[in-house]
From TrEMBL:
It comes from Paenibacillus foliorum. The gene is gatC. GO terms for molecular function: ATP binding; glutaminyl-tRNA synthase (glutamine-hydrolyzing) activity. This is Aspartyl/glutamyl-tRNA(Asn/Gln) amidotransferase subunit C. Belongs to the GatC family. Allows the formation of correctly charged Asn-tRNA(Asn) or Gln-tRNA(Gln) through the transamidation of misacylated Asp-tRNA(Asn) or Glu-tRNA(Gln) in organisms which lack either or both of asparaginyl-tRNA or glutaminyl-tRNA synthetases. The reaction takes place in the presence of glutamine and ATP through an activated phospho-Asp-tRNA(Asn) or phospho-Glu-tRNA(Gln). One of its GO terms (biological process) is regulation of translational fidelity. Keywords: ATP-binding, Ligase, Nucleotide-binding, Protein biosynthesis.
Length: 95
């Protein structure tokens, strides 16, 4: 498989990018170099390799759900730029 300038122009159009002719040639060369490097994987014998979703075995990395006391309203309001009636006051976003 080979990338052409037409392919680069198509991708640039999808990404709403304007490329100069020099950039088009540069990206075409770079993308072809990437594909050539990726083709080396076809040289590997993977017949007896079991497919995996991740190269390293993973276990649940989530921590246990532990309940803790939350901040009091007074502590929260110390960080608020402005407050009114126990609520954080923010500028209106609607007219």
């Amino acid at each position: 498989m080979s990338i052409t300038i037409k392919d680069v122009e198509h991708v640039a159009n999808l990404a709403r990018l304007e490329l100069s002719e020099q950039e088009k040639h540069k990206f075409t060369e770079q993308m072809n170099a990437i594909l050539k490097y990726a083709e080396k994987l076809n040289e590997l014998d993977t017949d007896h390799v079991e497919p995996t979703s991740h190269p390293v075995p993973l276990v649940n990395v989530m921590r246990e759900d532990v309940t803790k006391p939350s901040l009091s309203i007074e502590q929260v309001m110390l960080n608020a730029p402005d407050e009114e009636d126990g609520q954080i006051k923010v500028p209106a976003v609607l007219e």
